Amino acid sequence: MIDFRIGFGYDSHRLEVDIPLVIGGVTIPHDKGCVAHSDGDALIHALCDALLGAAGLEDIGTHFPDNDPTFHKINSKLLLFQVVKLIHQKKYRVHQVDATLLIEKPKLQPFVHHIRQTLAEVLEIDKNAIAVKVKTNEKMGFVGREEGVVAYVVATIVK
Ligand code: MG
């Protein structure tokens, strides 16, 4: 029998001016970025939680506390790399990722290919096993007012 597990992750971050915007490991040219202890990469944080959830390994805040100076302004790709290591230690490998990011501006469609490629390298899987959908929130709520971003990720791992 195949040991196949599904995990779900959610993250949100506040947007403020004069902070670099990093989504899925890619720096996006924009006048606002995510306020965070790390680089504020909501997509990668949700992905980490999805993978940790699938493996029954608690959550990103447990593994990388936001009051730990080690993780101050850390590139979230390094956190994801650590999470993949934990998954591999439990004898699982990442099988598939399906992500949705809500951001009103800028248009991220031109960056999706690069984001998928970047995640594929860290996850050690084919880019075709990674979906990244970017949507606005139709000007509604905090996403619509450009006050923040939201990421939802479903990931599967297999032994
Ligand atoms: Mg976060």
Note the main attributes of this structure:
31% strand; binds magnesium ion; alpha+beta; 5-stranded mixed β-sheet
Can you walk me through this structure?
By secondary structure, the chain is α+β, with helices and mostly antiparallel strands. Helix content is 30%, strand content 31%. The protein has helices spanning 42-54, 60-63, 76-89, 112-123, 141-144; strands at 4-17, 21-23, 26-28, 32-34, 93-102, 130-135, 148-158. A five-stranded mixed β-sheet has the order 4-1-7-5-6. It has a two-stranded antiparallel ribbon with strand order 2-3. The chain is globular and about 50 Å long. The termini are close together. Bound molecules: magnesium ion. Magnesium ion binds at residues 11, 13, 36, 42, 45.
Task: Summarize this structure briefly.
With 159 residues, the chain is an alpha+beta fold. The chain contains five helices and seven strands.
Helix-and-strand structural type = alpha+beta
Bound molecules: magnesium ion
What percent of residues adopt helix (DSSP H or I)?
A: 25-40%
DSSP strand count: 7
The helix count comes to 5
Side by side, the strands of the main sheet go: 4-1-7-5-6
Enumerate the spans where pLDDT stays under 50 for 5 or more consecutive residues. Answer: none
Give the SSE string: EEEEHHHEHEHE
Shape, per Cα inertia axes:
globular
Mean pLDDT: 96
Give the C-alpha Rg: 15 Å
Major β-sheet profile: 5 strands, mixed
Strand content: 25-35%
